[in-house]
Amino acid sequence: MTEPCHDEVCVTCSDAAVPMRVLRLLEDGLALVEAESGPEEVSVALVDVRPGDVVLVHAKEAIAIGPRGEESGIEALYPFLAPAPADREAVVADLCASTRRKAEEIVALRRSLVDLHAEGLVACARAMAAAFEAGGRLFAFGNGGSSTDAQAVAQVFAAPPEPARAVAAVPLAQDVALLTALSNDVGYELVFARQLAALGRPGDVAVGLSTSGGSANVLNAMAEASRRGMLTVGLVGYDGGPMAQEDRVAHLFVVPSASVHRIQEAQITLCHVLWELTQRVLTGET
Description:
Layout: E1 18-25, E2 30-35, E3 38-43, E4 54-58, E5 61-65, H1 74-77, H2 88-133, E6 138-141, H3 145-158, E7 169-171, H4 176-185, H5 191-199, E8 205-210, H6 216-227, E9 231-237, E10 251-255, H7 260-282
C-alpha cells in the first residue's frame, strides 16, 4: 500500500489511496481485501460493502466505494469528480445519512467508555493531580492527528478556562526545528524519547496518544518516561496493540474501535474527562 495506483490520492490529506477488491467480510468492522502484496485486512467501518466491491483504501481504512458491477477509478469512487452531472438530491441524502450514522457511532462509542474506563480515569486523575501538586509537568505527544490531539491536551492543562488551575504542560511536537533535527540526526523513532531524556524528571507526567498502539516513537518515549520515574498515561485504539502489552504504561485507556476517526474522536473525549477529573482533585471537589 506504499505505492500510488493510477495517481489516485486521498482528497483529505494527499497521501496515496489504492483501489482494492473486497474478498470477504470479517468481524469487528474489518474486511479481507486483495492487495498487490496479497490479501490483507482493512477497516470498512466508513463504508457499506459486500464481497466483490472495489473500495479506495487509505491507511488501512476503506474511505469510499465504487459502483457495483463497474470498473473502478477515481471518478467511480468519488462521483462528484465525474464530468457527468450527479443526482444532487441523492448526493445530499447520502451525505446526510452518512453524517447521521457517524454521529450515532461516536455517541455510542463514547457512552461505552463510561463502563469501560470510569474507575481507571478516576485513578489516573488522582495520580496526575498528585504529580502536579508535587511540581510535576505534563508532556504530551503523538503522530499526525494524535499529535494535534496531544497539543490540545497540553493546551487545556496549561491554559484552562478560568477559574480552573493551570499546570505546566508541553506538547513535544510543537518545535519543528527540534523535530526535524532529531529525525535527521538520530531517527524519527526517537524524537519524543530524546526530548524526555533531556527534559523529563521523576514525578512528571507523560501522555502518549496512538490509534494503533504501535507507533515506535511513542513506545520509545513511554519506555524512556518509565525509566525516569515519570507517570505514564497511554491512549490507544483497536485492541491496544504493543502498548497494551507487558505493562508498558501505568494508566492505559483503549478505545475498542477499528475506525481511526472514531478512535481519535473518543480519545480527545477521554482526555477532556481526564482533565476535568484532575481539576476536581486539585481543587478539592473530590
